[in-house]
Amino acid sequence: MQKNKILHIIKSLGRGGAEMLLPETMKLHNTSKFEFHTIYFLPWKNQMVEALESAGGKVSCFSATNNLKLMQQYSGVIEYCKKNEIDVIHCHLPWAGFLGRLVFAKTKIPVVYSEHNMQERYHIATKTINRFTFNSQSLALGVSEDVTNSIKKNINPKIPLKTLLNGANTDSFRRDPNSGTKTKLKLGIPEDALVIGNVAVFRFQKRLIEWLKVFKEIETKNSNVYGIIVGAGPLEEEIKAELIKLKLEKKVFFPGLKTDVKPYFSAMDIFMMSSSFEGLPIALLEAMSMECAIVSTDAGGIKEVIRNGEDGLTCKVEEWTKLSCLCKVLIEDPEKLSNYKNAARERVLNNFSLRRMVDELEEIYLSVIR
Questions:
Q1: CA angle (181, 182, 183) in 5-degree steps
Q2: One domain for residues 138 and 212
Q3: For the chain, what is the total number of helices (H) and then of strands (E)?
Q4: Are residues 66 and 212 in the same domain?
Q5: Is there a single domain that holds both residue 160 and residue 197?
């Protein structure tokens, strides 16, 4: 049987939510029907390459140092598509989307575009290009209802637009208490400590400086509480300066950028997010799958996942200081903490599994080919 060849185009393969989804979905796709290729452009952001190749994907880097040079790679991408007989191009995030639409205009190879963010959060130039080029593709996907509604409001596209909720690989992301204990010991965290954590790219939207301020308030009243923040990014220096300012060097640990975050999730009791805006964060779904109790702002698609008081505890984005009180509720009631850990896992199993997402994606690929 001839396989349907799918080409993912994405700006980088660092450890962001959209990037991490690629190898996870590849593990579940029907490899007797589909063959997957990936093109990325920033050679120094390659943390997901090994995972993609291990999952059976074919990865190529078309090196570009900025967005203009990325767009200049379109002729090479067209040549790649012809040489490898690509059936569908799936683009992720705006600049990959812009390039994919240019390829679509030249070749008419079907292009599917996944939008992970709200249009209102983009730079005015990005929003403008997105608006004027959006219809030069076959189909668009929003990762949450908030994202889809933002596209409708700001672009009003003429092409098909669907919501395809992100998912977590619930078979792969399972809590491992032994791994969690080893992670604590490696970082110097007492085995009986309660751990509050986050996994994030260190960008403005994640508000990790505010996260540290919330943690400081919690830790002042609970000496056996420790923190772990996994990741890296452009605001790393500012965030670590705040860590020193708050005298939390021995209480909050930064293990850096990791391709395998499961040992760190296994060490966390509470996954706390202070984000100002989100699409539908993959790290949140992974944390839930690994039985971390959730305390978060209700930014973007988070409120589509967490039903406050059922699957976790949330507050309004502008009321982020309330996160400390929400954590306190769980810290002081171990039974409630345990219940929210179990509820998080159940919510993902029932509504946000990666298997559901992959099945829907395969139907979408076949529909645009037809």
A1: 90
A2: no
A3: 16, 13
A4: no
A5: no
In the numeric block, the tokens 């909720």 are attached to 165
CATH for 73: 3.40.50.2000
Burial label for 3, CB within 10 Å (0-12, 13-18, 19+), is middle
d(CA 274, CA 214): 9
Based on the domain organization, do 85 and 205 belong to the same domain? Answer: no
Crossing angle (nearest 10°) for helices 124-133 and 94-107: 30
Over residues 297-356, the pLDDT tens digits come to 999 889 999 999 999 999 999 999 999 999 999 999 999 999 999 999 999 999 999 999
Sheet holding 252-256, edge to edge: 252-256, 225-230, 194-199, 270-273, 293-297, 313-315
CB burial string 204-224: b at 16+ within 10 A, e below: ebbbbbbbbbbbbbbbeebee
Q: What's the number of domains the chain is made of?
A: 2
Distance CA 50, CA 349 (A): 27
- Whether residues 80 and 138 fall in one domain: yes
